Amino acid sequence: METSIIIEGVIAFFLVIAGIFGIVGSFGMIKLTETMQRLHAPTKATTLGVGGVLIASMLYFFLVKGDFSFHELMITLFLFLTAPISAHFIAKTYMQANTRPTDLPETGGDYGWSIYDDPPVRSDTPE
Amino acid sequence: MITMALTFAFACFGLGLVLNLWRIATGPDSADRILALDTMVINIIALLILYGIWQGTAVYYEASMLVAMVGFVSTVAYCRFVLRGDIIE
To answer: Where does the UniProt entry say this protein principally localizes (chain B) (predicted)?
Structure first.
C-alpha cells in the first residue's frame, strides 16, 4: 500500500520526538546529582517519550494499515495515571531513609507524617 | 523514512536502558534503584511498541499492557517493602 510522504513524515516526526524525550529522561538519571532531582527526569520526560511512541503507533496502524484501535490510548492512560503514583512512593521511600522527622514542619492536623507514624485508627471501624 | 525514524527511536530507548542499568549499579540509595527499575520498565514498553510497528502486527499491545501493569505493581510493592517492611498490611 503506497503511503504519501506527508503521512510518513508525520509518523517519523513523532518517532524522533519520542526517541529524543526518552533519551533525555534516561540521561537525566545519570546527569543530575541529587535523588530528589533525579526523580524529575524519568517520571516526566520518559513518560512523554512513551506517549510519543504510542501516538506514532496509533497513526501508523490507522493511516498505513487502515485499522483503528484504542489499545494505545489505554496504555497511554494507564502510564499517565501510574507515573505520579510511582514517583510519590519513591519520594516517600527516599524521605523515610534520608529525612528526619525534626526536619519537617508540623502537619497541622491531629496525626503526624504518614511515613513515620502508623495510620490513624477510626473508633467506629468494625473489628 | 519510517524505517530510519524507527531505527533512531530504537537506538535512543536502547541507550536509555544502558543508562538506567548504570544508575542501578551505582545508585547510592535504594530509592535510586527503584526509580531506575521503573524507568527500565517504561523504556521496555516503548521498545515493545516500536517492535510492534516494525513487525506490523498488533500482538505487542497486549504484551506492553501486561508489562506496564506488572511494572507498576512491582514498583509499588518494592516501595512498600522498603517503607513499612511489609507489602500488604
So the answer is: membrane
The 10s digit of each residue's pLDDT in B37-89 is 999 999 999 999 999 889 888 888 888 889 999 999 999 999 888 887 777 76
Which fold is adopted by the domain B2-84?
Helix Hairpins (1.10.287)
Reported as a single tens digit per residue, the pLDDT across A3-33 is 788 888 898 999 999 999 999 999 998 888 8
Q: Does A99 touch chain B (CB under 8 A)?
A: no
> If you measure CA to CA, which chain A residue comes closest to B11?
A19
Query: If you write DSSP's letter for every residue of chain A in order, what string do you get?
Result: ----HHHHHHHHHHHHHHHHHHHHHHHHHHH--SHHHHTHHIIIIIHHHHHHHHHHHHHIIIIII----SHHHHHHHHHHHHHHHHHHHHHHHHHHHH--GGGSPP-SSSS--TTTSPPPPPTT---
On chain B, the residues whose CB falls within 8 A of the CB of A20 are 12
Distance from CA of A81 to the nearest CA of B (A): 10
Q: Compute the nearest-CA separation of A108 from chain B (Å).
A: 23
pTM of the model: 0.85
User: Quick check: A63 contacting B, CB < 8 Å?
Assistant: no
Binary contact (B45, A75; C-beta < 8 A): yes
Closest CB to A90 among B9, B23, B79 = B79
